[in-house]
Design a protein that fits this description.
The complex is a heterodimer of chains A (about 130) and B (about 180). Chain A is of the alpha+beta class. Chain A is about 45% helix and about 30% strand. Chain A has a four-stranded antiparallel sheet. In chain B, about 40% of the residues lie in helices and about 25% in strands. Chain B has six helices and five strands, in the order ααβααββααββ. Chain B is elongated. The chains are: A alpha+beta (about 130), B alpha+beta (about 180).
Chain lengths: ~130, ~180
């Protein structure tokens, strides 16, 4: 009787370990699939490319205003680094960035609701 | 007392089951990656914007003064214009003697008809464009995303050459490779 119960317990442990492993694997899979399906990456890329094009076509003195809450979701972070723009939407932790090629100086500011990308004449920004 | 062989057998079976689950998960990820694949192409627009910027740079008053370009500037047009991130672009601006020659990325036979060629970048980008253009549509498929964006413009401009002002034919091609 005791022997039988020991066998049953060990089988139960095995099944539990199995279930935990399968749940872990599927958890990772769902996490990876959901980021594709909810199109967060697409929104991020759209935002980066649109902003890069706006920067490229802007003249000195212009300010591009980007609302933090917009059609692409909530922009949690916007960065200008080494000639590239990085946008992070809905708490995303990764952005591949997109390069802009403007010859003017570009500065980023933010307040509670908006990001402001200021385009300045490079000579003025140096002086 | 547990049979040793049975324990090993159970372990192998468990590994096999986990391997199967991982395989299925990866297969589903693979399929979803194909179905949800996306590519937002803005290279044609970038080419157009760059062409406008170059035009503003070389002829700010609407007159293209050829004396402003040194030998170095003729090969580094975007550096001359102060455009920083310029490794992705190939720009070729041709000033023609009489009429504007036909558009070709590779044909150099019209040299005697040209007054000056200003360019920048690696003309190798144009070879990718030509290769994809000449490929059968059924083979292009996923390679299409590596096709450079293109903008071509031709028209007449006021050109100042050796102190003389005259209307000359100008053509410009801008090719943009993938950004990120």
């Amino acid at each position: 009787m005791k022997m039988k119960s020991k066998k049953a317990t060990s089988l139960l442990y095995q099944v539990i370990i199995h279930l935990i492993l399968i749940a872990l694997i599927f958890g990772m899979f769902l996490l990876s699939a959901s980021s594709r399906v909810n199109s967060k990456n697409v929104k991020q890329e759209v935002l980066e490319k649109q902003t890069a094009l706006l920067i490229d076509s802007a003249s000195p003195g212009m300010t591009i205003i980007i609302h933090k809450f917009n059609a692409n979701g909530k922009i949690t972070k916007l960065e200008l680094k080494a000639g590239e723009i990085f946008a992070y939407v809905d708490g995303s932790g990764y952005s591949s960035g997109y390069p802009y090629f403007t010859k003017h100086s570009v500065r980023l500011e933010e307040d509670r609701d908006n990001y402001y990308i200021k385009i300045e004449d490079i000579r003025k920004s140096l002086s | 007392m547990k049979n040793k062989k049975a324990v090993i057998g159970e372990g192998v079976l468990m590994l096999y089951r986990i391997a199967l689950v991982v395989l299925i998960a990866f297969m589903i990820i693979g399929v979803s990656a194909i179905f949800y694949d996306y590519h937002i192409d803005v290279r044609d627009v970038e080419s157009r914007i760059l062409a406008r910027e170059v035009m503003h740079c070389i002829a700010p008053d609407g007159i293209l003064d050829l004396s402003q370009f040194s030998g170095e500037d003729e090969k580094n047009l975007l550096d001359y214009c102060g455009i920083k991130d310029n490794k992705r672009f190939y720009v070729m601006l041709t000033i023609w003697k009489d009429e504007i020659g036909s558009f070709s990325l590779t044909d150099d036979s019209n040299q005697e008809k040209k007054i000056k060629v200003l360019e920048h970048g690696d003309s190798g980008i144009s070879w990718i464009k030509l290769a994809i253009d000449n490929m059968d549509e059924s083979y292009v498929g996923l390679i299409r995303r590596y096709e450079p964006g293109i903008y071509y413009w031709r028209g007449w401009m006021n050109v100042k050459n050796s102190g003389e002002n005259m209307q000359k034919g100008v053509s410009m091609v801008v090719l943009t490779a993938e950004g990120a």
